[in-house]
Amino acid sequence: MPEAFLTLLLFQLIGVIAQRALTLPIPGPVIGMFLLAGTLLWRKSRQTLASDDADAAEAPAASPALSSLARSLIACLGLLFVPAGVGLVTELPVLGANVVPIVASLFGSTVLGLLVTAFVMHRATHDAPAPEQVSDADGQVL
């Protein structure tokens, strides 16, 4: 598992270096996460091609150690809300002084998100037949 943790740290470092070198407005760890995801997808596509070609060597998409570490970190993800909660409590006077703009922005962003989602769904499905006109294939799951 240490090599898996080092892999995560290496991709985070690469992301931070790329962010600083290219002066991108995206945090370095986020860039590193996308680079790691891209690398894993690339390795998985190589594995798929290798399974189609009998002469090619198989390459696993992700090591078992990396998968295990990812599951362990996701299991502890709830702990990351503790610092955010403490930060909110320590900033209660600031939040109280700005309650109207905060509530307005939360309400406005929620309404805007709902409208954009409805517009996208309407545009994506306006040519599709109504659900009651779609065949259910005699109840069989495809």
From TrEMBL:
It is found in: Cell membrane. It is a multi-pass membrane protein. InterPro entries: LrgA/CidA. The chain crosses the membrane at residues 28-43, 72-90, 102-121. The keyword tRNA-binding does not apply. Its main location: membrane. Keywords: Cell membrane, Membrane, Transmembrane, Transmembrane helix. It comes from the Bacteria. This is CidA/LrgA family protein. It comes from Acetobacter sacchari.
